[in-house]
Amino acid sequence: MSSSSSAERIVSFSILAIAIQFLFIRSVFSQSQNNAFLFHKCSDIEGKFTSKSPYETNLNSIFRQLSYRVPSTGFASSSSGNTPDKVNGLALCRGDASSSDCGSCLAIAIPEISRRCPDNKAGIIWYDNCLVKYASTNFFGKIDFENRFYLYNVNNVSDPASFNMQTKTLLTELAKKVTAGINNKLFAAGEKNIGKQMLYGLVQCTRDLRSESCKACLDGIIGEIPNCCDGKEGGRVVGGSCNFRYEIYPFVTDA
Ligand SMILES: *[C@@H]1O[C@H](CO)[C@@H](O)[C@H](O)[C@H]1NC(C)=O
């Protein structure tokens, strides 16, 4: 594990204990520095299902479909069953993850979210390389404002005001690129020379979103830079529909 990522801190809107859990899980389960567990959330809003119920059968069915369909393209959404037992789910791999990294991320994430949220009708789990989300409500195409967390590098830059501005500029350029129409993966990565050093960034949306919604989602999280990672050497805002990450070291695999 690199020193920069081990110095990373997580901030969630919900529970502070997550920070401890994050460090614990990371040391126990992380497969490699490139696919760390980040965060999960079991939703109580949609209620619970019981063992051997139709909901459980439908959930297992979408998990199978996602494991099968996602690795080749990096994204799929899937629904199974009929109301009130209908389950909707999606999975997304990081835009630069190979199909085999994508498949192995899902092979870890799916059993892990089942273990962590054994009977919740809705849940979400994030790793560096993938995200898996499911719910009984149809959330496809809608920006997820509920599920969101921050990660940042504890190290401070020497010139926060200018650094924050450069970060915002880079990520905004990437957000424009993502939604310019040429990029159907809703993923962009890039870098920027900011004088003393380089700045590296990526932005990505789940591909159930239309490109305008993707842009709106990204603009929203980019606006959170002052809250998530003011003057920090690295930062991420990670949501259920879009995320960004920036670092002062290269972290994206060239396609
Ligand atoms: C970064 O700055 C914050 C706020 O001034 C301070 O609390 C923190 O200790 C600094 N971090 C490091 C690694 O020096």
UniProtKB/TrEMBL annotation:
Its main location: secreted. InterPro entries: CRR_secretory_protein, GNK2, GNK2_sf. The keyword Hydrolase does not apply. One of its GO terms (cellular component) is extracellular region. Signal peptide: none annotated. It is found in: Secreted. One of its GO terms (biological process) is response to abscisic acid. Residues 37-139, 145-251 form the Gnk2-homologous domain. Keywords: Repeat, Secreted, Signal. The keyword ATP-binding does not apply. PANTHER family: CYSTEINE-RICH REPEAT SECRETORY PROTEIN 38, CYSTEINE-RICH REPEAT SECRETORY PROTEIN 38-RELATED. Belongs to the cysteine-rich repeat secretory protein family. This is Gnk2-homologous domain-containing protein. It comes from Arabis alpina (Alpine rock-cress). The lineage of its organism: Eukaryota, Viridiplantae, Streptophyta, Embryophyta, Tracheophyta.
